[in-house]
Amino acid sequence: MKHLLALAIKFVIITLVLLVILTWAFDVSFLNTLMISLALTALSYAIGDLLVFLNAGKPSNQVSRNTVATFTDFIMALAIILVIGWLLTGELAGMVAPALVSALVLSAGEWFFHQYVDRSVVPWYNEYKTAKR
After folding, report:
1. Helices 2-18/30-43 angle, 10° precision
2. 37, 85 contact by CB (below 8 A)
3. Where are the transmembrane segments (predicted)?
4. What is the sign, positive or negative, of the torsion defined by CA atoms of 110, 37, 51, 100?
5. Please, are residues 121 and 3 in contact by the beta-carbon 8 Å criterion?
6. Which residues, at least 6 apart from 55, have a Cβ–Cβ distance to it below 8 Å?
7. 64, 81, 83, 97 from 92: Cα distances, Å
């Protein structure tokens, strides 16, 4: 259940950011933005939040793990938005700026999302005292 809530939160954040940047600022269609959001949410959560974040260092070194995972999320968001955007719109050059801006904004939010994952989704990983009550 904790993973479903985390996925929902991540989807809402990604969708809102991409709606503002891709749809409103760069005129990407709502449907294309929604499809990019779904793909990015699934891949980013599985790879960036569960695989990389939890295995990028010692459990007690949250800052180091967060830094590696946030950088990974930036690269992943950039690649996914660029490739899927290109496939959906047919414009590769036209998707570079939107993908870069979106990836920068999303990676800033990922820093905080990783802290949420650490404390609320996998509290046993760091043995947080407050989460075990």
Report:
1. 140
2. no
3. 7-26, 32-56, 68-89, 95-113
4. negative
5. yes
6. none
7. 34, 11, 8, 10
131 and 120 Cβ atoms separated by less than 8 Å? yes
pTM for this model (two decimals): 0.87
Q: How far is CA 46 from the centre of its chain?
A: 10
Written as one letter, the residue type at 38 is L
Residue 67: pLDDT band (50, 70, 90) is: very high
* Rounded distance between C-alpha atoms, residue 115 and residue 102, angstroms: 20
* Domain extent for 90: 2-132
Which residue's entry shows tokens 């760091």? 126
Q: Residue 27: in which H helix or E strand, if any?
A: none
**Spatial CA neighbour of 66 closest among 116, 132, 10:** 116
Q: How many domains does the chain have?
A: 1
What is the token pair recorded at 39?
Answer: 């793909």
pLDDT digits (tens, 9 = 90+) for 24-34: 999 999 999 99
Sign of torsion over alpha carbons 56, 62, 64, 65: positive
